[in-house]
Design brief:
heterodimer, A: alpha/beta, Rossmann fold, 4-stranded parallel sheet, 43% helix, B: alpha/beta, Glutathione S-transferase Yfyf (Class Pi), Chain A, domain 2, 3-stranded parallel sheet, 21 helices, binds iron/sulfur cluster, binds FE2/S2 (inorganic) cluster
């Protein structure tokens, strides 16, 4: 495994990205991107959560610990959360959490985005953009 | 060709595994019965057990069951995740049975052999132990913020004396001003040392929480190895820390893993450090504000400095000697009802078990503190955080101020011959 990783040049590095989607907006947005056949790189693994406020910073650290290359959390736009304030909590929490990520040099590999159910195109764009960014950064556990 | 490489690699992996086993043997003893057989069931431990005050938990009964051959049942029942690891039981055991240490070993068994998931008992979703684990991995670069260092202090990468900050910058994300402990500690050390103090940018966790909390010995051993290597690179001979847990880990647990740790480094808690300087006549205490009001204050003994150290090495009397001396400058030291080795536990250990039961313990502790003073000093950053967290929930505790030892002393200390660089500033 490690040997094959070593040979990988940055060009054909295929990042693994974890994506948390809230059930009501972003997941529907991702769905829309699918049915409207917007192209985006097959790098993400989606985890559906009921609300972006459900995502704990510990989940993100755990993912990085196990070697994921990037994490993106998506939720409804501010004011649109179906549980009223879930995404505001998420925003505040991750803002503070940046401090910790910075210590581990992971702050560039994490992103928080708001994507609504009708923004299928935007979902595809966000994922493409983030994938390109991670590709530039290279694998997390480079040998 | 590839075949040979493969064999070489498997050989190397095996060697590494053996290496791990030899370390594991030093901190892990699979035969629990052997460790417990001296117990004669006086049940004193169950009488003093702190968690038994708020929930059903009887160490003596657990011991008896293990001795009768029901070890598997105890392990399966998951009951041992509830122990606070406060060591009150050892304090009162006539046969010196170290129950907390046995729980630690049992937890390793529970996790590795029984594949139990302690998630329900881990506080803050386990984010802090996770950080420690990440630091034990080889491929993580750590870059701590150093902007808290007071301007007048010069720090460096190499030198005689090292200040080990511990996890304070990580706690800062959820607990306000935990870095002020680091700031005041460094301020004191800086003024007393001629040479610049070593503060590492890439300092990693000491591993205490992994060792006691979830018994992740693999990561603990990795952390210990990395830490010792890094300390050696700095050329330091003295390590000063303001954290009770780091102190205990460096003083007792690292030397059990690496015998020569004791020879290479001298470990000092900030209390010891100030006490020594005070005895040498290098510091005095003075009150910056000239009011004549007498301030009553009290001290909460962290378990790691009282019950977790060998009998003749406890840091209990030194701190009281300093505090009693503060009377002349208007600070009146009073003991809480439970003090020294008998002091109540703050209720959380190694980020395990923060629940309504442990909160009840903290509530009791704050009631005791409220009865005797307006300031509560402790010398463990975690005790300070846990107690402060509860204090916020109850209005009737708003009169108490909970401070760390160095935060409290930084304004009261007067250095006789302050360092040149400070004077210029
Ligand atoms: S106090 Fe010691 S001897 Fe007595 S029951 Fe507990 S472990 Fe056994
Ligand atoms: S370590 Fe503390 S909580 Fe655990 S059994 Fe002993 S007294 Fe009880
Ligand atoms: S429901 Fe979408 S962010 Fe809360």
């Amino acid at each position: 495994m490690s040997k094959s990783k070593k040979k990988l040049s940055k060009k054909d590095f295929h990042p693994n990205i974890l994506c948390f989607c809230c059930n009501w907006c972003s997941y529907a947005g991702a769905d829309l991107a699918g049915v409207s056949r917007f192209q985006y790189p097959p790098t993400i693994r989606i985890v559906r959560v009921m609300c972006s406020g459900r995502v704990d910073p510990a989940f993100i650290l755990e993912a990085f610990k196990d070697g994921i290359d990037g994490v993106i959390v998506t939720g409804c736009h501010i004011g649109d959360c179906h549980y009223l304030k879930g995404n505001e909590f998420a925003r505040d929490r991750f803002e503070r959490f940046q401090e910790v990520l910075k210590i581990f040099n992971l702050d560039k590999r994490f992103r928080l985005e708001w994507v609504s159910a009708s923004e299928g195109k935007r979902f595809a764009e966000v994922i493409t953009e983030f994938t390109n960014k991670i590709k530039k950064l290279g694998p997390l556990f480079a040998t | 060709m590839n075949f040979i490489v493969e064999i070489e690699r498997s050989k190397k992996a095996k060697l590494e595994a053996d290496d791990f086993d030899s370390y594991l043997r030093k901190i892990y003893e699979p035969d629990l019965t052997n460790l417990l057989k001296k117990c004669y069931q006086c049940a004193r431990c169950s009488g003093v057990c702190q968690i038994s005050k708020v929930q059903k938990f009887t160490p003596s009964r657990i011991i008896q069951m293990i001795l009768e051959g029901f070890e598997d049942e105890i392990i399966n029942s998951q009951v041992l995740w509830d122990c606070l690891m406060c060591n009150s039981c050892l304090q009162h055991c006539p046969k010196d049975i170290n129950f907390a240490d046995i729980v630690r070993i049992a937890r390793y068994k529970m996790r590795v052999k029984d594949i139990q998931n302690p998630d329900r008992s881990i506080a803050h979703k386990g984010i802090y132990p996770l950080m420690s684990e990440m630091m034990s991995q080889d491929n993580m670069e750590i870059e701590r913020p150093l902007d808290w260092i007071p301007k007048s202090c010069t720090t460096s990468d190499k030198g005689n004396i090292l200040y080990y900050v511990g996890c304070l910058p990580f706690f800062n994300y959820e607990f306000e001003d935990s870095l002020s402990i680091a700031e005041s500690t460094l301020k004191i050390i800086c003024q007393l040392e001629k040479d610049p103090v070593v503060v590492l940018k890439d300092e990693i966790c000491c591993g205490h929480d992994l060792y006691w909390g979830q018994a992740k010995f693999e990561s603990f051993i990795e952390l210990a190895k990395k830490n010792i290597k890094r300390f050696e690179e700095t050329g330091a001979t003295t390590i000063v820390t303001a954290c009770a847990e780091c102190y205990r880990t460096f003083k007792i647990d690292y030397p059990t893993l690496f015998e020569d740790f004791k020879k290479k480094f001298e470990v000092k808690h900030i209390i010891e450090y100030i006490f020594d300087k005070w005895k040498q006549g290098k510091v005095q205490f003075k009150n910056p504000n000239k009011s004549h009001e007498v301030i009553p204050f009290t001290y909460h003994d962290p378990c790691r400095l009282s019950r977790f150290l060998p009998k003749d090495n406890k840091i209990i009397e030194e701190v009281r000697e300093i505090f009693n001396n503060l009377k002349i400058i208007g600070y009146n030291f009073k003991e809480m009802e439970h003090n020294k080795e008998n002091s109540y536990c703050c209720g959380v250990n190694s980020w395990m078990n923060c629940n309504e039961r442990s909160k009840a313990l903290r509530y009791k502790r704050l009631l005791e503190a409220k009865a005797v003073g307006t300031k509560m000093i402790t010398s463990c950053p975690k005790c300070r955080m846990h107690l402060n967290c509860l204090k916020k929930d109850y209005d009737n505790f708003s009169s108490i101020e909970i401070l760390d030892f160095s935060e409290f002393l930084v304004d009261l200390i007067k250095i006789i011959e302050p360092n040149q660089t400070i004077e210029e500033n």
